[in-house]
Design goal:
By secondary structure, the chain is of the alpha+beta class. The protein folds into three domains: 179 residues, no CATH class; 80 residues, PDZ domain (Pdz3 Domain), CATH 2.30.42.10; 83 residues, Pdz3 Domain (Roll). Helices cover 43% and strands 22% of the residues. The strands form six sheets. It has a four-stranded mixed beta sheet with strand order 2-3-1-4. Strands 13-12-14-15 form a four-stranded antiparallel beta sheet. The chain starts with a helix and ends with a helix.
């Protein structure tokens, strides 16, 4: 266990969720604002403040002044800011804007320099997302199944079978591209529609994926045909315990039928809901048959560790080079998925309540157990999501500033400061109102409302 995992081992789940969320946001906000800061300094702009989290009301956890810049940690953990002299921003410092422009101010610099300063935060979030994805693949995934090694095809779950797939199908293309890794056969964007090409009994078949598949997803479309399912924990008083299932048992079959992965085991077990059946396990090299009563919900009460059967699938290691390449793909796929999802949200095809989450909802995704693999994966995803959200053309966001600079670059005339100030106020009111509604929605969800 790592030091943080040991420290949080006895901490209530809610605090662990909060701790993970705050650490993730701290990293992401710092890197985002660093992008603005470095670009501003590179062009000779004076930076008055660099804050991680907001210091509303002048209240802060700590601050230190070095040179012309005050660096600090605010108390309100839903963002941060870099206050650049001569720029209309969250501070709404009208006094400074009423003075004569100085060479070191934002407003005195060429439009292309101001554009780079404003896009700097988004660029840094994208770069960070790529780096974290690459790190996560290399350090936590370590290896992957090459699709070329899956000659016997994949296991098709119930939803996949409803779409027209069959167990044993060998995926040869996704939206016209040849997948390299097993993970690539179901990229995020496929759940918003597309086409998967499979080889079945020597014939090539194209299976259309509907655009609303994301609404139906409760489990993956596919699983590797061969997995090792090892009992990790048996719940006290459960039917698994009553049937003498033990930690370390390797699941081999149900009711005399072989199961080669967790999905096939689960489906066979559910087919005996409300009945008694037998489960075959490998216990210390011996095949043992257990009699188990299966409740109506089809679960007997144990946790398992499911890993790829490396005897069936020769695995390939992630090198730092391949990790960076695939990490870039993961980041791009996350961004594209955000674009597609946002488009469907605007067209009313996705319920707003189910698709937008506040930090309260995000904290619950992190979970009550400190898992570094999950932490870094979610942080990478959130970094890309923040990049997308900040590029939206909403006043008070980076995208709003970029729109005004873009208008100036096209027309040759800057947008008046009065218009920008009013738009900034409208944007801030809109974002704060949206945040209140989203937080309220997530709180209601916690209570099942």
């Amino acid at each position: 266990m790592t030091l943080l995992q040991i420290i949080f081992a006895e901490v209530p789940g809610g605090l662990v969720m909060t701790g993970q969320l705050l650490l993730s946001l701290s990293i992401l906000v710092f890197v985002h604002e660093l992008g603005h800061f470095l670009a501003a300094k590179a062009f000779g702009m004076r930076v008055d403040k660099f804050y991680v989290f907001f210091d509303f009301g002048g209240k802060k956890i700590f601050s230190i002044t070095k040179g012309e810049t005050e660096y600090g940690l605010g108390w309100f953990p839903l963002g941060g800011y870099v206050k650049i002299a001569g720029m209309i921003d969250e501070s709404m410092d009208k006094e400074q804007m009423n003075t004569e422009p100085q060479d070191w101010e934002f407003r005195s610099k060429p439009a292309w320099q101001r554009f780079i300063v404003m896009i700097g935060g988004v660029v840094m979030n994208v770069i960070l997302g790529v780096i974290i994805y690459a790190f996560w693949l290399n350090q936590y995934q370590e290896r992957y199944i090459p699709v070329a090694e899956m000659q016997e095809g994949v296991y098709a779950h119930e939803l996949a079978r409803d779409l027209g797939f069959e167990t044993g199908d060998r995926v040869v293309a996704v939206n016209g591209s040849t997948p390299e890794r097993y993970k690539d056969i179901t990229p995020l964007k496929i759940y918003f529609g597309g086409e998967i090409t499979v080889e079945r009994d020597g014939e090539i078949k194209d299976v259309k994926i509907p655009g609303d598949l994301f609404k139906q997803i409760k489990e993956p479309l596919f699983s590797p045909l061969y997995e090792k399912v090892v009992v990790q924990r048996v719940f006290e008083g459960s039917n698994a315990e009553k049937g003498n299932l033990e930690v370390g048992d390797v699941i081999k079959g149900v009711d005399g039928k072989e199961t080669t992965n967790f999905a096939s085991f689960g489906e066979l077990l559910r087919s005996h809901s409300g009945k008694s059946t037998t489960i075959a396990v490998n216990r210390g090299g011996e095949l043992v048959t257990l009699n188990v009563d299966v409740p109506e919900e089809g679960k007997i009460g144990f946790e398992s560790n499911v890993t790829t059967d490396t005897e069936k699938y020769p695995m390939k290691d992630y090198t730092w080079g391949s990790s960076l390449r695939y990490g870039s793909r993961e980041a791009f796929a996350t961004f594209v998925t955000q674009v597609i999802g946002f488009g469907k949200l605007l067209r009313g095809k996705i319920p707003v309540r189910d698709s937008v989450q506040s930090p309260v909802g995000i904290a619950t995704i992190f979970g009550s157990v400190w898992d570094w693999s999950k932490f870094w994966l979610l942080t990478a995803m959130i970094s890309i999501v923040l990049a997308f959200m900040n590029i939206l053309p909403i006043p008070a966001l980076d995208g709003g500033h970029i729109v005004f600079i873009g208008i100036e670059m096209i027309t040759g005339k800057p947008v008046s400061e009065t218009v920008i100030e009013k738009a900034q106020v409208v944007g801030m009111v809109f974002l704060l109102t949206l945040m209140v509604l989203v937080v309220g929605n997530d709180i209601l969800k916690l209570f099942g409302i």
